[in-house]
Amino acid sequence: MIGTGIKRGTAELAVLSVLEDSPLHGYEVARRIEQQTKGALRFTLAALYPMLYRMEQRRWIRGSWETSDAGRRRRRYRLTPAGKKMLSPLRQEWSELFQALRRLKKVAHA
Amino acid sequence: MPDWQTLVRRRLDGLALEPHERAQVIEELAAHLDDTFEGLRRRGLTVEDAAQRCLGEVKDWRDLRRKIQTARTKENIMTNRVKQFWLPSLLTLLLSMGLLALIQIFGPNPWMVARHSGGSLVAPVTVVYIPWLLALPLIGAMGAYLSNRAGGSQRAVFSSIVFPVLPYLVFFLAVLPMIAILNDRVAHNIMLAPLFVGLFAWVLAPGGALLAGGLLLQLFYARRLTSRRVVSN
Fold first, then answer.
1. Which of A45, A54, A73 sits opposite B71 (nearest CB)?
2. Which end of chain B is more exposed for a tag (fewer CB within 10 A), N or C?
3. Residues of B in contact with A31 (CB under 8 A)
4. Domain ranges of chain A
5. Using CA atoms, how far apart are residues A52 and A54, in angstroms rounded to an integer?
């Protein structure tokens, strides 16, 4: 199980990554992340929405209301050009961190 | 199926956003709970179990309200701090000190009362200090109300309530140890007792009075929230 601090750090990257594939509403974002991480990352409503709203304020994502065929209104989020721009350095940072941890592991086992 | 819209609206009561924005947040969170509930039902959970799991998505609604407010607000964090802490704090300080000055200027003349009561030391306390002390719970409650309304955390609300006594507290915390150290090294004898009386009169008693009003209001808010939870359950 991944600790809370690491989860918080990866949360924004996770949300941006799943939104890169396709626009999703909040519930779908949470489920997609849970499925793709095999349950290692799980967002409750309380954790997800303040983060989505914060990212929207930063203009990384944009939400818009859509009505489904069944007549249900959902707010769907899509990645903005600013969000796409953010995604690349974020991935780079995390990649470097994981590489550093892997190197550390090799040193520890040497 | 539970009425998620009503539940979310009740639990996010006091969310300080524009009405249309608040309505959108409520609709969106209710839709999320609706989807979660249906997902759990599809996985075979009973209505009760699914509803319980949905409610478990939010442990602390007050905290969620504060986080949403901070995240959705257009202004930056500094502005939130101003609304949640500085404005209520400075207003309680201004009102408490202004009230003391007003009582001194426009209140009964202590000398007149002193002549009648025969106690010149007691009279100013009776006509100036005690009326001021009795008014402080109202000022404390006002500080708590303003900070609460702006979505202040427990710490911001508490600090806003007791802010008027904090300068005095800092003064006494700085002065008392200094006196304890310097007392033997100066020629005249420093009276410690009046300093402790000052600490009581300007920090402990007014702080207690401010807290009495502020915490009473907090208790009222907490009870209202609890009763709404019971109703919504």
1. A54
2. C
3. 39
4. 4-103
5. 5
From residue A75, alpha-carbon distances to A26, A66, B25, B36 in Å are: 7, 6, 10, 15
Angle at B153 between CA B6 and CA B52, to 5 degrees: 35
| Tokens coding B165 | 């006594």
Strand residues in chain B grouped as ranges (E): none
From residue A84, how far is each of A20, A60, A81 by CA, in Å?
Answer: 7, 7, 5
- Provide the ipTM: 0.84
> Two tokens at B195?
């300093």
Max CA separation in chain B (angstroms): 85
Identify all chain B residues contacting A57, using CB atoms and an 8 Å cutoff: 71-72, 74
What is the tens place of the pLDDT at every residue in B150-199? 777 788 899 999 999 999 999 988 888 887 777 777 666 666 777 888 88
Chain A residues with a Cβ under 8 Å from any Cβ in chain B: 25-27, 30-31, 44-46, 48-51, 53-54, 57, 65, 72-75
Q: Tell me which residue of A86, A109, A107, A101 sits closest to A6, measured CA to CA.
A: A101
Q: Does the distance separating the beta carbons of B29 and A75 come in below 8 Å?
A: no
Tell me the pLDDT of chain A (110 aa) as tens digits: 455 555 556 788 899 999 998 999 999 999 999 999 888 888 899 999 999 998 998 888 999 999 877 788 999 999 998 888 888 888 888 888 888 888 886 666 65
Question: CA of A58: which chain B residue's CA is closest?
Answer: B71
* Closest CA of chain B from A26, distance in Å: 7
Identify residue B221 by its one-letter amino acid code.
Y
pTM equals 0.55
Residue B42 tokens read as: 């599809």
Pairwise CB contact (< 8 Å): A57 & B33: no
Spatial separation of the C-alpha atoms in residues B57 and B40, rounded to whole Å? 13
The maximal CA–CA distance of chain A, rounded, in angstroms, is 61
| Rounded-to-integer distance, Cα B10 and Cα B218, Å | 17
Q: Domain A4-103 classified CATH 1.10.10.10?
A: yes
